[in-house]
## 1
Amino acid sequence: HGELEADEAVKNGADLCGVGPIYTGRTRPDLHAAGVSRLASFIKDHPTVPHLAIGGITLERLPELIEVGCRGIAVCEAVCAAASPGDVIRRCRTLLESEAIASS
């Protein structure tokens, strides 16, 4: 939930970090959203540690996350509330995979 916690997790050998909450979501509305800047800072400080952006992630917000280097997301609300959950997952995956290919 913060830079110090992330630094400590990485220092102690974390092989994956959840970074967030990025946006306020209905799953955990009690948590203060840190915004995209927290994700950008994590990626800059720990470029080799895989991450999942979490908190209020939607298909519409994904391009903003990809722009700062996001390569993984955790979604709940966007999928569970969708009329076609499989379509949302496929579209998110397509965006993330196409960006991964473009940056390699």
## 2
Amino acid sequence: MIPRLSRWEVAALLALLGGSALHALYFDHIADDAYISFRYAANLAEGNGLVFNPGEYVMGYSNFLWVVLLSGAEWLGVASPRAAPVLGIVLGWGILALVAGYLRSAFGGSWPALSGALLLATNGTFALWLVAGLEGPLFALLLSASVVVALRTEADAASRRFGWLGLLLGLAAITRPEGVFYGLVIGIGLWLRRPDRVRARAVAGSLAISLSIFGVFTAWAYAYYGDPLPNPYYTKFHPLSWELLMRGGRIALWFAMAYGGMPIVVLGAWLALCARRGSVGWLPFAICLAFVAFFVRVGGDGQAYYRMWFWVLPMLALLLGETVARLAGSSQRALHAWCVALVALIAVSNLQHSVSGGEIARVRHDETLSRDVGLIAVELAEQHPGASVAANNVGVLTYVSRLEVIDMLGLTDRHIATAPGKRVQFPAHESHDGAYVLDRQPDIIFYGQPRAFRTPLDRDELLAFGYPSDFDLRDDPRFLRDYALEHMRLDDGRYVPLFRRRVPSS
């Protein structure tokens, strides 16, 4: 039962909710990869099936429940680029309220609840990925709700709580497949806290519900796509290697240092002050450790503002709330001062990353590029109706143009995703098979990223840089034999380089 909030607590929580939304709108950015999900959602709403290109059955997404939600918005006439940020902010408010409500109930007083909410509201990763169009807010809310229900279940082992836990974990698993992994962490943790037969049966029942939901989805995916695993799994997967682990560890360290060591400070403070058998932070801490192990194993993620860390932030907020409760509950004035200093330090460490550094510059660059690609897509559909296109970074290009597109990075193409020769480089940009692309004879190929320039580019200048997928093309003699460099003119006078398939002479 959540204690009645005072007026100032309500005002403070509303201010944090409003600040969180303003922080998100400050970024005003939708990731290119989100448009891949938007394309699937639009095709489903239009009756073409849950596909990227009509007629090609490849599960090029790993966020089924999110895509289905967006398809409902598309069916109602609300385009995904408009619906996704609104849904994200509402779900983000749900996370803030859930964290604050649990901390208020578990520890009493205002400081724990508001400090946890403040950590989320001031964090740039949390803010950006509320509106960036992907499933992070939905997955984080389901995972956070699962953790809160599990913690309440530990105190009150009512059977109905285990049923709700199983449902939440099942929904999380069909939002992102690694939800199954976190479900096992939660289930094993609950059993280890009370390893008796009654708890074992309850945990087993909960996991059975979640695995049944995931199993039904997996069976459907196999029947519909011919493969139970999302295609991005194949695109991003590497065998375990030291190089892969080093990349994952390096990106994890970048995340911590970008926020002035905030995650390390929170974890360290909780370990120093609260880590004991009676602590309720054991489960958020276990989720953090499990996530880091998973993140390092897959080699990290290359999205701006460290996307995958979004669903760990509520766990850090829960740990911070317990730590603050310990400090604020002391009768020693010095500890109260440390409490204020800790919360202020975390807020400042978070906010500085939203206004300075390489990540905010990257987001602004990506947003400019996305707007340009939207213009390119419109012009492409008008000048080359019905054309087939091969490109990298296909999200905006495909959603706006509605043309058939070969994804040269393999996220939505099964053959390229599983092609040999992939090496550990930039995450999700490593898959390639230029020979396969040329075998399919697309009408138009974009080398590198679709871009607009003030003046036409020389061919050698254009071919000097690119992804592994581009170098495959460059090194294949058929590319320059069968494709000619052209420049498509935009309404603003800029030039867009593309390679158009030569028409065979009669």
## 3
Amino acid sequence: EFSVSAMRAASPNWNFGYSSQNPLTVEGDTSNFLSRQSKTGHNLFARIPPDGFGDREQIWSGTNSRLQCWRLGSWLIDQDIDGNSATDDFRLDVLGQTYAAFPALPHQATSEQLVDFWVGRIFGRSLEAAQRDELVDFMAQGNSPTLSLILDGSSSTAIAVRSRVRSLVGLMFMTPEFFLK
């Protein structure tokens, strides 16, 4: 559920599946993802019927499972597909969705706008004011939360803002609210 929720919220930007049927060849990213997924303790199709995976919170919120989900989320957020940071082609298309939400060129938004957009996208509801304020403070990095942040360009400031947006989404994936639906 963590993986599907993260990918649904932030739109995967990689090939999942098989690159060839004869011989059957799994895409490298798929193999890497499934390996990371298995470490969470909730392998796909691994629970034997008739009971399936449990529906109690304790089963899903153990420390090892939580830690491995955080690692999986970090891999999805931070892994640059081609290894070239100038292309912004990460496993999850956080930046593409952010650009689409704020289409005016140059792409810009305030810390508050960015947080509100991603809170709505990830949680589908508002957060408590204190939680929202912490996320806004993280995004603002000591600046005014109403200051317009420019996402475009190759300046060190724009690169830092883009990185912080991806980190913001990753941080939201680590919250208890994201784990418990």
## 4
Amino acid sequence: MNWNETAKAFLDAYRHGRDVPGGLLFAKALQQAKLDFTPHSLDRIDALLDQIHQKIRPSKEGFIDDVTKRNFALMLAFYLGEYVAKASGSLIEWRDYDETVAAMPPDAGLPREFFSYITCTVGGQLILPLGYIMERLFNGDTKFVAREYVEGRLDVIQADQRRDLNVWSKEMLDAFARDGYVSGGLAYRLLLRQAKLDYSMESLDRIDALLLKIRGEQSPEYVAFVNKTTEQNFLSFLAFYLAATVARLGSFPLKWYSFDQAGKVLKNLQFSFETTQICAIGKQFYTPLGTLTEILFSPEADISCRRQAEAILRENPDRLVSIPTPERNQGPRGALDLPANWAIAVEQTGFLAATSIFMVQGGQLTPTSLEPGADGNATLISHMFEHPGEAIERCAQQMASNPKSLPHQAFVYDAYSYLPTGRTDALILEMVAYKPKPFRISVALPYRQASANEDFALQDPILLDCSMAKDFHPEIFAQFYKGIYSFKSQDFSWDECLIRPVNPVH
């Protein structure tokens, strides 16, 4: 059965006062409810369901087995789904239980129940309108209100439409750390506080215990839980925290993707609540929400946050390398000396780094390239009259082709860097030296713009890529800082601007 066509046929039949195949119980009462896609129609649905509950005391089993009763429930479900789709300006897709489960991770644990008989996705969100109908019609729960149900779905969809997950993750983690407000509310805040979330492996044990405590004491239902904003925020927060903890412990870059964004890379990705937030840790993709929902809802969960973290740490060999300041760079500088041209190239790149950090204090940096002159001095070229994207692309092409046969060149641009602490403002430095053989490095310069509450600050540079073995790193770093400290200004000190991140990258 094509449920999208069925939903359309039902709603068309209602609009024109026609019957549906198999018949429709309470058809007259439904017409009197005036399902006209206004907020008042939601109030009338509440009143209709309350009246049926009080007079008939219906059962879930009877509504699934009797076609006329099932069609009544389906009509209301189709209407609620369409209401959310219209109000959010989003497309809607309907699925039955088997289709929904097939689109979800195998460990999602969606039970075969009345509320999961049909589902829909609107704006990338999984919605189970039969869950609302079940609570009101069979359980007589007058607190489960149609307006709040619809508004809750709209809040989530509209927030997702304008939300960058990388920004949202940082906002949620920062808000919790300062005991601030989380948009939409955050369930179990006190229990989270008691879990002492300090980004340690032991804190993941405490999260496992917290989830098992909720599961054991409250026996939460999957559908009701993931469709309530405060509980959904609780799971999202824990997903962000779990990924951030792993990234910090392993010194991995961390980047978040929505379902649509991830789907461009992961071609066979299936939509579910668990895939609305996907993260890349290192070069691997993970669904932390899947780990959390399996612990919370699966009766035979064979996973924990700690075990998931340990597995990710094993699977990711590529770790970010911090370029420490000289006083923190312990031990000898290394047994390998850099070729003379490489040493000059790295030193001048360090000078470009300090110059660019000095300039970015006044706002966004214009893409800037560096070219060495015949006298050994470097010339900085600002691409202020070009579109930033075009300037970056042109500089990258010039570095690849080296049309002027330069011994080395570099360029810097303002962007974001994905660090273990999340998305961060950063300048990105690219350098290539061509002789005696090609040598490339790429460096991120994380910084924090000044605000009303905080001064401008920068963190230790991060080595994103280097074509030479680690044995060369001490000498490369020494030359890089030699260039940094060669930049002189009365209005700027690299060391005075430097701060240490909460969990520094090693």
